[in-house]
Design a protein that fits this description.
The N and C termini lie far apart (50 Å). The protein has 297 residues and is an alpha+beta fold. It is built from 5 helices and 17 strands. It is 24% helix and 28% strand. A hairpin with a 5-residue loop joins β15 and β16. The strands form 4 sheets. It has a 6-stranded mixed β-sheet. A 6-stranded mixed β-sheet has the order 8-9-10-12-15-16, covered by helices on one side. A 3-stranded antiparallel β-sheet has the order 11-14-13, with no helix packed on it.
Length: 297
């Protein structure tokens, strides 16, 4: 069946390595986003916290100086770019909400250059070299989707990508594309086999979100070594069957472009009606931390 051309859009994911200079990182990311727009990208996404190296490897109060207000200098710059190129932009930023209150935030900018809204990272990790709880207050805006000019987009962030509840919630709010700005890599001395399994699992869980919800999923990661972490890149876009639509490498900067036919969402949800067959009357226990001995905890 031939679908209307309006159902087809192009994503552009900006996978870069990162210097210690926030202004230089912003300038580079803007230049790459502009290049992506000139190559036809209608929805452009940065990697997680693109303005700085991944500072959560240590707990250091000096790093709070990297945060900025939203709206602020980064969103102002991307709003101008979005308006110039009629492109939607998802920019991942370290948000200073108030004194002592900071968030890991994705700003969503529409193709007219307006700041549509923000998503604040909901799931905050605390693992070796990923000490994010020191810096980020958990999000308080839920899992919304944003009706941009080209598609309805759910913008989640990194650790969120491991949680099916977040993907499902964004899909239920109408998202046709789930986009995950990401910063993930290997820590020192991990056995090669386990390191490979981790990267495979990272891709697999996100492809499963695409299948379970009948949506496109895009994940944009950074590359290069920063401190003790080697970021593995491998940004990708998966289609509603979990198929890989586009895939970046793991060692260099790339602008990853992917064509997405949003008309497939309706067709696939008709064929695989997971949302229709959900037993919403039976999912109450999911609001519990555990169900030991059949009882809510």
């Amino acid at each position: 069946m031939k679908r209307p051309a309006s159902s087809e859009i192009k994503l552009g994911l900006i996978q870069t390595d990162v210097s210690a200079n926030p202004d230089a990182n912003l300038k580079k990311t803007l230049a790459l986003a502009e290049r992506a727009a000139k190559r036809g990208a209608q929805i452009i996404c940065t990697q997680e916290l693109f303005r700085s190296q991944y500072f959560c490897q240590t707990e250091d109060h000096e790093n709070f100086k990297l945060a900025e207000k939203i709206p602020g200098p980064s969103t102002d710059a991307f709003c101008k770019l979005a308006k110039k190129h009629k492109a939607v932009v998802i920019a991942s930023l370290f948000e200073k909400r108030a004194s002592g209150v900071y968030h890991n935030t994705a700003a969503v900018i529409d193709a007219d250059g307006s700041l549509m809204g923000i998503y604040r990272k909901m799931h905050i990790p605390d693992d070796p070299l990923y000490y994010e709880k020191f810096y980020f207050t958990p999000g308080d805006l839920g899992f919304p989707s944003f009706q941009t000019r080209y598609a309805k987009v759910g913008a989640l962030v990194c650790w969120d990508q491991w949680f099916p509840e977040g993907a499902r919630s964004a899909a239920l709010s109408g998202a046709q594309i789930l986009i995950y700005p990401t910063a993930i890599g290997w820590i020192p001395n991990e056995p090669k086999l386990i390191a490979g399994q981790q990267r495979d699992a990272w891709e697999l869980i996100q492809r499963s979100h695409a299948v379970a919800n009948g949506v496109y999923v895009a994940s944009v990661n950074r590359v290069g070594r920063e401190g003790r972490i080697k970021f593995w890149g491998n940004s990708f876009v998966a289609g509603p069957f979990g198929e890989i639509v586009a895939h970046a490498g793991g060692a260099r900067e790339e602008i990853l472009l992917a064509n997405c036919d949003l008309g497939r969402t309706e067709e696939i949800r008709q064929s695989w009606p997971f949302l229709r067959d959900r037993r919403i009357d039976a999912y109450g226990p999911l609001l519990s931390r555990g169900l030991e001995d059949g009882k809510r905890r």
